[in-house]
């Protein structure tokens, strides 16, 4: 098609087709080269699929750890100076008859401990029988005992290489002993396949339901199918981009679920907006080439700003020095890039080729005064009342957030039937203390004369069951056992503070703080699993203000570039804070307090791990801004045409709200499907994100946006200037 023909169809002079805005020129190029574009896109998809398969196999099993923290340095000192460290896993040994003190059971237990210690990859193995029969390694009824195991190496080595070989061999048991595996590494090893199963199950639900919803909205099978295919296209593109990141950074396998869920949702959303604009341009009389070019020019700009906003919100996770959270930034940005490629490069070529199959069978005249226009008009008639009631409702829904308590994750993130969780349940209920999760105090000082008094003082702390040291074992301030210099002395000394099971279940972070508050007679570093969790939580929470500042600043800049307004980004930020408040209110009410736990099938612990809420904060904020960008782009376009803020809001809502509601419903569905997950982290992410998207796409966009823009009036567009009607002085007062 010639430039002149296109210009005639679009109502512009010939030079506008070749010298117009960059996105229009891109749209025309994609139309002219559609066969080449589709052929190259197929090649890109095949290459991306190959790279994606390789990337998926190279994802790591990142730990929750804080590099450079006191607990991290303590662990390094413990390994370097004493050749020991925290236990990576445990084996729960149960006597099939009698007790663990019976001679034949004891002999079998010693042999089992020695066999574990000789296993490939195991550095240390100790047990109730080899460590002098401490009460902390024996259950109260005498039926169970523990074997504690240290396996050096990173999480991938431990969980992917050693444990899959060691666990089946050891848990085979025997005539005298039943053996079950547990411990932190085993819990997280069991989490990974369950999370993958959660994804597969959720996607089996999402795809058909998304197709039905899209068909109900578009009324054409091809118009429903193409956005889903675009979402599927975005997934391997995102994973292929991650293969490049894996050269210099670790990506957690848990980021895969977010990548695939967001890839599908954003791919559908972005393509829906381009297809909708293509339909509008066709209905206005443009030919197919002109409609594609106009869709890329207008909807494409919106999609670009939307993608930039989501990517910028996720990028703030780079401010956190944790591979686990940074993984989601890499994954999210990669999948946004995949969605943009699908919507702005592949889709226009598809529309140019088969766009007629996506048009409605009957061209109905577009209503300028439909439901959404009427709703916006009614809201703007009483902006204070409408906006006030909506705000009160959202604040009530967000109020449980005030009771937020950060804690640490444990085996209860798994379903009750998970093997490692069942092991940990027995330990919680039957053992007086948690020696496998001991707090370790490491000192390099050669002078250790103060060890007895220091150990006795630590043993008096509430929540401490026993303190083991070279000078002896202490409980309640008294010496209750002989010391073990061979274990606790070397270049310096170290002590093991064994917490009670109740203290670990209640608040291990508080116990770590109490241990650190006791003045030592020599310089010590506090480590061990509880200290690692405490340092990780503190590091995340301490950096939360920085994350918030970066997120607000970056998204403010993006919206300012799009609207050239200062007021609109501030308003958008306030509204997004409201939607985030509702999301956090929901996860506190459900996952912290345990409401709906029977329906969703999880166990509440009374606290939330800080990592997942921070991740949800960045993702939800980006997606909320996503819909803000979509709606504002239509309002701004109408305002630039008429200069009337009220008319722009009502018309923009009429044209944008149905699409935003449909897109939001599909994205919410994509996340809500994870409510059936077996892993609580995945459930929390799914439920929280679904709530945020639904609230944002309905109450906030339909009520609060019109009411606030009505109240602001001409100030909405400050300092970029006023529209044509406002410049002539014909503008309605901002309030009624």
From TrEMBL:
Provide a GO CC annotation, any one: plasma membrane
Subcellular location, principal: membrane
Its subcellular locations are: Cell membrane
Q: Which domain of life is it from?
A: Bacteria
Q: Which UniProt keywords apply?
A: Cell membrane, Membrane, Transmembrane, Transmembrane helix
Which InterPro entries does the protein's record reference? MMPL_dom, Mycobact_MmpL, SSD
**Membrane topology label:** Multi-pass membrane protein
What Gene3D superfamilies does the database record attribute to this sequence? Multidrug efflux transporter AcrB transmembrane domain (1.20.1640.10)
Residue ranges that the Swiss-Prot or TrEMBL entry lists as coiled coil: none
Q: Which positions fall inside the SSD domain?
A: 233-353
List all membrane-crossing ranges: 36-56, 199-217, 224-248, 254-275, 303-322, 328-359, 380-402, 544-562, 574-592, 612-635, 656-675, 681-704
Q: Which family does it belong to?
A: Belongs to the resistance-nodulation-cell division (RND) (TC 2.A.6) family. MmpL subfamily.
> What protein am I looking at?
MMPL family transporter
Origin species, per record, is Nonomuraea cypriaca
């Amino acid at each position: 098609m010639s430039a002149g023909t296109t210009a005639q169809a679009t109502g512009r002079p010939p030079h506008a087709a070749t010298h117009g805005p960059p996105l229009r020129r891109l749209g025309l190029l994609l139309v002219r080269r559609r066969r080449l574009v589709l052929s190259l896109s197929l090649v890109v998809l095949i290459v991306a699929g190959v790279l994606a398969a390789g990337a998926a196999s190279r994802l790591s099993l990142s730990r929750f750890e804080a590099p450079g923290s006191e607990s991290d340095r303590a662990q390094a000192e413990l390994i370097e100076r004493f050749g020991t460290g925290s236990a990576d896993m445990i084996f729960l040994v149960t006597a099939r008859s009698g007790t663990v003190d019976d001679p034949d059971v004891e002999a079998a237990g010693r042999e089992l401990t020695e066999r574990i210690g000789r296993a490939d990859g195991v550095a240390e193995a100790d047990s109730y029988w080899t460590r002098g029969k401490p009460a902390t390694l024996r259950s109260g009824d005498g039926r169970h005992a523990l074997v504690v195991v240290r396996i050096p190496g990173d999480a991938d080595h431990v969980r992917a290489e050693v444990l899959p070989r060691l666990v089946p061999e050891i848990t085979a048991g025997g005539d005298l002993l039943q053996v079950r595996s547990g411990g932190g590494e085993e819990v997280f090893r069991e989490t990974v396949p369950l999370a993958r199963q959660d994804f597969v199950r959720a996607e089996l639900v999402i795809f058909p339901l998304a197709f039905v919803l899209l068909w109900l909205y578009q009324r054409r099978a091809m118009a429903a199918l193409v956005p889903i295919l675009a979402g599927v296209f975005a997934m391997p593109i995102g994973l292929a981009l991650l293969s490049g990141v894996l050269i210099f950074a670790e990506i957690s396998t848990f980021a895969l679920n977010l990548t695939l869920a967001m890839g599908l949702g954003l791919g559908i959303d972005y393509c829906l907006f381009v297809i909708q604009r293509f339909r509008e341009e066709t209905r206005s009389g443009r030919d197919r080439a002109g409609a594609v070019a106009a869709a890329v020019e207008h909807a494409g700009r919106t999609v670009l700003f939307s993608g930039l906003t989501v990517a910028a919100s996720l990028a703030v996770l780079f401010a956190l020095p944790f591979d686990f959270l940074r993984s989601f930034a890499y994954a999210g940005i990669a999948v946004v890039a995949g969605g943009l490629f699908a919507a702005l490069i592949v889709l226009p070529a598809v529309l140019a080729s088969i766009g007629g199959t996506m048009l409605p069978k009957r061209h109905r005249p577009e209503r300028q005064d439909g439901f959404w226009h009427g709703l916006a008009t009614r809201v703007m008639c009483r902006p204070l009342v409408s906006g006030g009631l909506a705000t009160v409702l959202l604040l009530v829904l967000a109020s449980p957030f005030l009771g937020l308590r950060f804690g640490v994750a444990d085996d209860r993130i798994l379903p009750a039937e998970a093997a490692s969780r069942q092991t940990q349940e027995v330990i919680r209920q039957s053992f007086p203390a948690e020696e496998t999760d001991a707090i370790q105090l490491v000192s390099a000082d050669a002078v250790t004369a103060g060890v007895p008094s220091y150990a006795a003082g630590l043993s008096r702390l509430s929540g401490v069951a026993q303190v083991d040291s070279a000078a002896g074992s202490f409980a309640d301030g008294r010496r209750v056992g002989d010391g073990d210099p061979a274990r606790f002395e070397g270049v310096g000394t170290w002590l093991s503070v064994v917490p009670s099971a109740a203290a670990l279940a209640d608040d291990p972070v508080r116990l770590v703080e109490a241990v650190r508050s006791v003045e030592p007679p020599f310089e010590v570093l506090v480590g061990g699993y509880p200290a690692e969790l405490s340092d990780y939580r503190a590091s995340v929470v301490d950096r939360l203000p920085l994350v918030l500042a970066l997120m607000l600043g970056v998204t403010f800049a993006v919206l300012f570039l799009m609207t050239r307004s200062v007021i609109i980004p501030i308003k958008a930020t306030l509204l997004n804070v409201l939607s985030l408040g509702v999301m956090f209110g929901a996860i506190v009410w459900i996952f912290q307090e345990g409401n709906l736990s029977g329906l969703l099938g999880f166990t509440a612990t009374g606290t939330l791990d800080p990592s997942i809420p921070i991740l949800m904060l960045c993702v939800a904020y980006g997606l909320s801004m996503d819909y803000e960008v979509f709606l504002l782009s239509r309002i701004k376009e109408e305002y630039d045409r008429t200069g009337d803020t009220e008319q722009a809001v009502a018309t923009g809502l009429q044209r944008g709200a149905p699409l935003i509601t449909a897109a939001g419903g599909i994205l919410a569905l994509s996340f809500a499907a994870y409510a059936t997950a077996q892993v609580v982290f995945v459930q929390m992410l799914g439920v929280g994100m679904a709530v945020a998207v639904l609230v944002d796409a309905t109450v906030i966009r339909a009520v609060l946006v019109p009411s606030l823009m009505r109240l602001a009036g001409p100030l909405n567009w400050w300092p970029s200037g006023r529209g044509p009607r406002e410049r002539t002085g014909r503008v309605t007062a901002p309030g009624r």
